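This protein record is not my work; I was only asked to verify it. Would you go through it and say whether the fold makes sense for this chain? Here is the record exactly as it was handed to me.
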Amino acid sequence: MGMQIGIVGKPNVGKSTFFNAATDAHAEIANYPFTTIDANRGVMYVNKPCPCKDFNVKCTPHNSKCINGTRFVPIEAIDVAGLVPDAYKGKGLGNKFLDDLRQAHALIHIIDSSGSTDAEGNPCGAGSYDPIKDVEFLEREINYWFFGIIKKSWETIARRCEVEGKKIDVMLAEKLTGLGVNEKHIYKAIKSINLDTAKPSKWTDDQLLNFSDYIRKLSKPMLIAFNKCDIIPDNFKSKIDEIKNKDYIVIPTSAESELALTNASKKGLIEYKPGNNDFKIINEKELNEKQLKALEYIKSNVLKKYGSTGIQKSIEQAVKMLDLIVVYPVEDETHLTDKEGRVLPDAYFMKRGSNAKDLAYKVHTDLGDHFIRAIDARTHRVIGSDHELKDGDVIRIVSDA
């Protein structure tokens, strides 16, 4: 399974608008094979420099797209079911919400920065609801969800560790693997809060909840999209720093503005690239007074004030949080082609620290199983299975498959 980013948030904060803006932004370039996308899944794109410029070749991408030397690399987005209080107890769409969440490797939490939606997502007067409560609410839901899963079989796990000499991190990793939690996360969490691995039966509920909190931070890194940034009340601007003090990345966003700009761009009315700090009107005669005013409003209150609508920035930042690099596998390192002659055909996200053999497995299980060596197309040097890959590497895998 590839990397997936969950878009989360309560009703009326602009979550669906954000999801649509983030996944529709490059809909016209999505001509590559991808898994079936249903109603709550979509594809977002991360902009990376394409190696075609370095090699001075014209690429023919297969699983992505290149426009003027910028490679748009796809990553899957999940529009997570709406948040409800006590979702971890199965209330509302709680089970659906947690099932969606299970699949996400990182989260973009959409929050109404104007404070005009209450805890349930009902409209209320601007500035009358503290958006920081939403951050704490989501933390609590995920923490208690993890805690409930661990607690369910805790006595058995603790006993097996103490009586049979099983390692606690291995036992917990088996239990939590379906949530995207691995042994490294568990080891780091145990070390951070100094838990006694020899006597897990002595761990208190408070310690287990603290452990769950660490596991959430490590396995589901989250950034805050401070949405509706064009209407933040003056007394709420300090909220950005307050949330940053909780160790979150906060990005002011305007999903409505992004959607308006990408729609105008698709219709050929403006020239706009997601992530840019400006747009160019190319067909003013086709725009009525209301549309011109709307575009001027976006330019003044969003683009000039914040440097962009924040949507593309959120996607790029989520990939940074996951510490991903992009690698380009080829079958001929001289011509940079695959067996069908396509130049620099595929771009794959890999976890930083991945090696050549990991890439072989990413491309195909047989390539990994029968790996012999790899060749770095930039240096033409032979590299071994444990060679650590770098962002932008172009690699040929040699196998006897």
